[in-house]
Structures are given as structure tokens and as C-alpha cells.
Amino acid sequence: MTYELYYWDGLPGRGEFVRLALEQAGADYVDIARGSDGTDRMLDILEETRADAPFAPPFLKHGDLILSQTANILFYLGPRLGLAPDSEGERHRLNGLQMTIADMVAEAHDTHHPVATGLYYEDQKPEAKRRAADFRTVRIPKYLDYFERVLSAHPDGPKHIIGTALTYGDLSLHHLLEGLHYAFPQAMSAFGNRWPHLDALRRDVASLPNIAAYRASDRHIPFNESCIFRHYPELDGTGTGQQG
């Protein structure tokens, strides 16, 4: 059965983590909202009175099954796409890593919307500058130091976030790093070679043939200032302690 992915048209967002897994696996899927009536179809499902109604995109429809939440979707897809460990315990550990990635994604979003998602960025600039300064100087190193330690702990070498084969966790960590470099290029540059294993993973995933082909295709949606990772120069910095 064809996988149906529902997410906002024109935005990579949280849907991109699911797209990368589907693209790497060469799965048969449709990005519904990019069709002529796709957004209306997505909104119809969101507004239905049904026990399995998702709260918000992204959500995945596979036959009669509807799954929401990025980590949950990937937990379902991973074994089916060959992008998850065989061990049940390792699959749950990978799910925990994916949830930690989701935590950091949420904090990245809140750098430009720290007060309310319903307000425009321009309505909360002073608060955004304070939030972004803390994110650059405290939260980015806290999260990335952690992921670097996880990679470094593998006895067979720090090539993958878990196990000895590519998983959706590697793809998601790559996209997280791409988003951080897009949104905070000066701050990320100032950290230099602090995370060599993460840098290598970022390059390795980018060079995967299926990922490279996807990024060069019209299916790929570039980062933009309507999404989670946004580049506002006033929110960027050197990453060395500047406060806004």
C-alpha cells in the first residue's frame, strides 16, 4: 500500500524527518498536501470527529491506519523500511533518541516564537533575541555534546547513532544539523570542530545516493522563513556568549 504523508505544503518542517526516511528507502508514498486539493483533504481529516483523528500534521495514512507525531510515525516506518534495528530494545532506544531530537527541534522553533505561536515574529522580537541567545550559547552545545557522546560510545566506530547500520535516527540527526546550520550559521561556525562525529554523520547522510537525488529533485522543499528553522540574522551570533 502507498504511504500517504500529510504535512503543510511549502514547508519542510517536521514532515521532512518522515520524508527523508521514505526517500532513503525508495518507498512508494504521496506527499498529499502538495496535490491540487491536498491541503483541503488534510484539513478534512483534522476536523473529523473520529477516535484516531490526529491533532496536527505531520500524520501518516497507511491503509486504514492513521498515525501522528513524528517520532511515532518513524517508529512505525523504521522496521518496514529497513531503517531500524532488529532488537526490540534497540528500537525503543532509537525512539528515545528521536524524541530527544524532537525536543531540540521544538526549542529551535521557540527561538523565533518564544511568546506565542499565534503571534508574528515581529511581535516578539525582544523576547526572541533573549531566547535565541540562550539557545545558541547553552542549549545547542548541551544537546550536541550529548549526541556526540552517544556517537563516540559505539565500540564499532561512531558512524551511526545506534547499531552498525543506517537508521532513521541518522537521517533525522542529519536534518537537525542541516537546520541548525541554516538558522544559525555564525553560531554553528564558531563551534569549529567541537563535534567531529556529528559533522561526519552529516556529510555521510548527505552523500547517500537516494538522499542526494531527493535533495536535487522538485520533491525537496528548501528551508524557508515560514518554517521551524528560520534564519534571522539578528537571532544568530558567534556562539561564544553574546546576548542577542
Question: Would you write up a description of this structure?
Answer:
By secondary structure, the chain is of the alpha+beta class. The protein folds into two domains: 3-81, Glutaredoxin; 88-235, Glutathione S-transferase Yfyf (Class Pi), Chain A, domain 2 (Up-down Bundle), CATH 1.20.1050. The protein has nine helices and four strands. A hairpin with a 2-residue loop joins strand 3 (59-62) and strand 4 (65-68).
List keywords for this structure.
4-stranded mixed sheet, 2 domains, Glutaredoxin, Glutathione S-transferase Yfyf (Class Pi), Chain A, domain 2, globular, 244 residues, 4 strands, alpha+beta
Label the overall shape: globular
- CATH classification, class level of the largest domain: Mainly Alpha
Q: What's the CATH architecture of the largest domain?
A: Up-down Bundle
CATH topology of the largest domain: Glutathione S-transferase Yfyf (Class Pi), Chain A, domain 2
* Radius of gyration, taken over Cα atoms and rounded to an integer in Å: 18 Å
Largest sheet: 4 strands, mixed
Low-confidence stretches: 238-244
Helix-and-strand structural type: alpha+beta
Order of helices and strands: EHEHEEHHHHHHH
What do the pLDDT scores average to?
Answer: 94
**Helical stretch count?**
9
Strand content: 5-15%
The order of strands across the largest sheet is: 2-1-3-4
**Would you report the number of β strands?**
4
Give the total of domains: 2
Q: What percent of residues adopt helix (DSSP H or I)? A: 40-55%
Distance between the termini: 49 Å
| Oligomer status | single chain
